[in-house]
Amino acid sequence: MIFEDLPTTPTSEELIDKAFSRAARAGKAKRGLEAQQSMLQTAANIISDNLENVVTAWPDFEYDAHPFYYELADAIVDVDKLRQSLSEVMWASRKAREIHEEYQPRLRKTDVDTARKHRKQAFARLADIVEQIDDHLLYINESRNDLRDLPEINPDEPTIVVAGYPNVGKSSFVNDVTSARGETASYPFTTKGIGLGHFEHEHLRYQLVDTPGLLDRPPAERNEIESQAVSAIEHLADCMLVMIDPSGECGYPLESQLELRDSIVAQFDSVPVLTVANKIDRREVWDEDLLDELDADYTMSVETGEDVETVLEAAIEAVDYEPELPFEE
Ligand SMILES: Nc1nc2c(ncn2[C@@H]2O[C@H](COP(=O)(O)OP(=O)(O)O)[C@@H](O)[C@H]2O)c(=O)[nH]1
Ligand SMILES: [Mg+2]
């Protein structure tokens, strides 16, 4: 995941301390004018290089981030504000070099006292520049901490997303058809873990994703971050399975479950959505007219295994994934 390896961003205080203490050490190794020159060069370089590294450590959101991650990142941090902060830091990095270039000539062909006075002045200006971007450095580090924990999901793998109210059997389904049990990922904005599983079909790896807290309740109950995370999922899902429990044993009336299904169909208009009624083994508690009303594409029972394969194959067909061949033009 592209935001995983971002280094911590120093605070302005840390950076100033580091630059000036290294400069003091460099100064002690030399005498006279050379000591002053070496101090300035060391301090300016450390500030300039460290600030530049803060900026270059970040991927380009538009070119390097998959739209799924871009949108998810934007739900969690303010990407425009982050970009602005990064550009201010770049400005400060360049400014530090300029100060170095401006003061360097003043530390030559002069007496040591005058040189020391100029060097101190340069240091004050360097410190001032770094202090000016204090808030930006803090925001960058905060963003880094928030984005580091984005879920480990591969957006390039063909993906089936499972939606539906709690207790309808989503986790049971994901665990049943995938090899890795209990694989989870987490979003930084909720404590609920994403259920994640993989299976292979005709040598292709598919990803099954269950998104508790997002696609398990009506849109009106989602906060702003959750709503945006749901739209990020539009870039991820190649097929949507909306699971319904017509027995009502999940604790949610069928009517609410169908409303959720309809809202998902409406929102994911570019993604094939299949309605799957689970717990068919409990058909004795299903209402007689229910099946008509449901308009389900499939019925199944994860408990007994009835028609689970059929549903999976339908999902694979709906994904309609064609791998890119390396030699294709
Ligand atoms: N009778 C019956 N129970 C099921 C079936 N699938 C899942 N369950 C049960 O329904 C409950 C909720 O399942 P779970 O997978 O945790 O639902 P989730 O909240 O949607 O992930 C569990 O007790 C499951 O054992 C099924 O096909 N038939
Ligand atoms: Mg679950």
TrEMBL record:
Q: Which InterPro entries match?
A: GTP-bd, NOG1_N, NOG1_Rossman_fold_dom, P-loop_NTPase
The chain positions of domain Nucleolar GTP-binding protein 1 Rossman-fold read 224-281
Source organism of the structure: Haloterrigena salina JCM 13891
Molecular function in Gene Ontology: GTP binding
Q: Which residues form the NOG1 N-terminal helical domain?
A: 3-153
Quick check: keyword Glycoprotein in the entry?
no
Q: What keywords sit in the KW lines? A: GTP-binding, Nucleotide-binding
Q: Which superkingdom is the protein from?
A: Archaea
Q: What is this protein called?
A: GTP-binding protein HSR1-like protein
